[in-house]
Amino acid sequence: QKTGTKIPSGQMGFPWIGETIGFYRAQRKNQLFESFFQPRIKKHGKIFKTKLMGSPTVVVNGATANKFFMSNEFKLVVSSWPTSSVELMGKNCIMEKQGDSHRCLRGVIASILGPTGLQTMVPRMCRSVQKHLVENWENRGEISLHRSTKTLTFTIVLECLFGISVDLDTMFGVFENVLEGVLAAPVNLPGTKFSSAKKARAKIQNVLVDEVRRKKEAMEGGREEEDGMLLSSLVAALIRGEITEDEVVDNIVLLVFAAHDTTSYAITMMFKMLANHPDCYTLLLKEHEDIAVTKRPGEDLTLEDVKKIEYTWQVARETMRLCPPIFGSFRKAIAEIEFEGFTIPKGWKVLWTTYGTHYDEEYFPDPMSFNPSRFADPVQAYAFIPFGGGPRLCAGYQLAKLIILVFTHYVVTRYDWSLVDPDEPVVMDPLPFPSKGMPIKISPKHNY
Ligand code: HEM
To answer: What residue ranges do the domains of the chain occupy?
Structure first.
């Protein structure tokens, strides 16, 4: 291709709408790849132009494009979220930050989500998971796995990561209300998803502002100090004048949002895959039983134990390859971009997609088959991107891994389980989820 070549485009449709309706329709049915991306990739190649929500958008697929656009964040592109997400998460959250202020916030978050922070989090997380199972699984014959993993992730993020105790029964519902409006049309009229999300956001704001001010006073008065929890690190940065109170509050909301539907979906789909691939389940179970026999009754897992859980992480990665919790993410070109002979004008949107690379046999032979051991060997950089890449690589990647592995350990060593409806469809609104909440039958193991 010569420099400046026009990017191949599909039907551009009506001036504003473009292909938005087809995109949303495919998304709702969880068929973004089959009905939207794949036919266009077949027709135009890995890079093509479309028009979504009023913006000319270049969809890019493949490891080379992923590397180029993800690593050129802040230089050629910046992340670009819908108005409703920005209003509900808050203008001060990390996904809206660029350059130095992004680096500063990322540093505070990474200090707790890095290896040392996670080491101290393992026992707390083990206790949270076990408490959750006792309270929600014991003496029940059937539970919703999706609901269970959602409430658990919510509790872990607030209690184990931030060190904030909340009344789960009221706060979970309020956060869910906010999340429902995050990708809805930003219409603030009574009865719309966006307007009830805004009300819920105001309630959360009040609770969190009180919590942050109480913490700040206690730390300034010497009654409390940094305790390895993210709230105290953020408040310490607030006291040092590095970040503002709004930045603390907006980033608590953002982290709950970022962790919530993603991690719960990954776990839920992993169990579905295991139910459909009993050979993989046998291998996975053995891995956890081998660890369980080395533990005294009631002894928590350590980070060293978690590091031995390798096969389960292969299963989780293969699940996220086939069923990525996030289908991709939008960027905006902040300069005219030349890429592989194409010119992308400044101001256009760029959309990288997980499917377009995960389902490509160039990177994953026989791409539609479930084969966890393909992750026993290293994978080409930027070919496996459920967590994104570059400066915006998911900041909670290691935490998500820990939640998935610890939860799986306690469930498979303590319960026999089976899917109630193996054919339950997955739908998207706006993120994917099992349409019936994935009910599973459960019974405690005899030796537990
Ligand atoms: C399986 C679970 C998860 C998946 C698949 C996932 C996926 C992603 C992806 C794809 C991005 C990049 C978005 C972009 O490039 O625009 C991202 C960013 C982010 N994620 Fe996650 N995530 C998960 C869990 C978590 C958890 C548990 C947390 C923390 C509690 C978290 C915190 C974040 C944050 C803060 C960012 C923004 C990073 C930045 O802009 O610098 N995520 N995540």
So the answer is: 1-90+327-385
pLDDT band for position 1 (50/70/90)?
A: very low
Cα torsion through 8, 11, 12, 16, rounded to 10 = -150
Any residues with Cβ below 6 Å from ligand 1, and which?
79, 94-95, 106, 157, 255, 258-259, 262-263, 266, 325-326, 329, 386-388, 392, 394-396, 399-400
Query: Does pLDDT of 17 surpass 90?
Result: no
Residue 441 Cα distances to 137, 312, 336, 419, angstroms: 10, 21, 55, 6
Q: What is the pLDDT of residue 28?
A: 87
Q: Are residues 179 and 200 in contact, defined by beta-carbon separation less than 8 angstroms?
A: no
**pTM, whole model, 2 decimals?**
0.95
Q: Whose CA is closest to atom 39 on ligand 1?
A: 392
Query: Rounded to the nearest 5°, which phi and psi values hold at 166?
Result: -125, 160
Which ligand 1 atom sits closest to the C-alpha of 385?
A: 10
* 158: nearest Cα among 123, 125, 111: 125
Rounded to two decimals, the ipTM of the complex is: 0.99
- C-alpha 156/C-alpha 163 separation (Å) is 9
Judge: domain 1-90+327-385, CATH 3.40.50.1820.
no
**For a pLDDT cut of 70, what percent of the chain falls above it?**
96
